[in-house]
Amino acid sequence: MAIVLELLSRKNIPLKHYKFEQDYVCVGRDFNNDLRLDDPYVCPSHMLVAIDPESGLLMVNDCQSTNGIKINNKFVTQATLSPNDVIKIGRTHLRIIDTKAPLPRAMPLSELEENLNWLNKAFLAVCLSFLCISYLLLSEYIDSVKEFKLIAVLPAQLGQLALFSLWPLSFAILAKVVKKESHIVNQINLTLLITLVFYVLSLLQKIVVFNVNPGAWFAFIEFVIFGILLSGFIWLSLFIAFHQATKRRNIIALSLSFLILAPLFTFGFLNTGEFDSSPNYDATLLAPAYNFTKAFETEKFIDNSQRLFSKLDKMKKD
C-alpha cells in the first residue's frame, strides 16, 4: 500500500503530490526525512505517518514537535488518518490521498481556450502596440489646432499606453500567484486589442456626432455598447487568468463592470441639465477630416434662414 501526500496552499489548492512505496514516511525539516519541508515552523523531525501493521490503517504520530500537529484544525499527538484529512504542521498543509478511490473523468477542453491561443504571440503585441500608438498620434494630429510636434506628443501617448498595461499586469500577477501561470502575453494582447476596438469606436463616434449631431438616444447606445465591451473584456481577462466556474466568472465580470460604469453614468447624468443660464462654449475647431457631409452654400443657408424667420413671424401673428 502506497502513502500519498498532497501539498496544499493556504487556500487548500493542490500544489504537489508525494507518493511513497513504503509503510512509513518521516516528515520534517531535516534532510534525512522521507519528506523534507522547507518550513521554519516545522521541526527537523516533526511527525511520522505510518501504516499500522495490525489494522492496516494509516496513523500519524507527533515526534515531540514544537508547534504540534493539527488534523482538520484539531491538535493531536497520535491519530488515525482517513482519506482527505488535512494535516497542518507549521505553516504547511498536507492532505491524505486515497489511492484506491476512483478519479473523476477528465475535464473537457474548452474550445474558447483553444481559440484564444493565437493571443500568445509576442509579435502580435508589438503590432497591436504600434497600431494603438499610431491611432493616438493620428488622432492628436487631426484634433490639434496648433502646430503638431511629435516629440512633444509622443511621451504622453506612450504614458497612456503604459497606464493601460497595468490591467493585464495585475491579472498576470494574480494568475501567477493562484495557478502558477501568468499568461502575460495573452493578457497584454487582449488589452491592446480591446483598446484598439475602443479607439475605433471613438473615431466612429466623432464622425457621427460631427456629421449628424444625434440626440440623447445616441449617448444611450454608446453607453450600452461600452458596457457590453467592458463586460466581455473583463470576462475574457478572468477566463485567461483563472480556472473558475462560468457562473462565478459571469457574476464577477458583471459586478466589476457595474462598479466602473455606475459612477460614469451617474456623473454624466448629474452634469446634464435641461437649461443652463451660463453655458460654457467650446471654441475648439472640429477637425475637417471628420466631415463627410456636404457643406451648405451661402445662398442656400440665407434662404433657409429667411424661411425659418418667416415661419416664426407667422407663428407670432397666429
TrEMBL record:
The chain crosses the membrane at residues 118-138, 158-178, 190-210, 216-239, 251-270. InterPro entries: FHA_dom (IPR000253), SMAD_FHA_dom_sf (IPR008984). PROSITE patterns: FHA_DOMAIN (PS50006). The keyword Transmembrane helix applies. Coiled coil: none annotated. Residues 25-76 form the FHA domain. Keywords: Membrane, Transmembrane, Transmembrane helix. This is FHA domain-containing protein. It comes from Paraglaciecola hydrolytica. The lineage of its organism: Bacteria, Pseudomonadati, Pseudomonadota, Gammaproteobacteria, Alteromonadales.
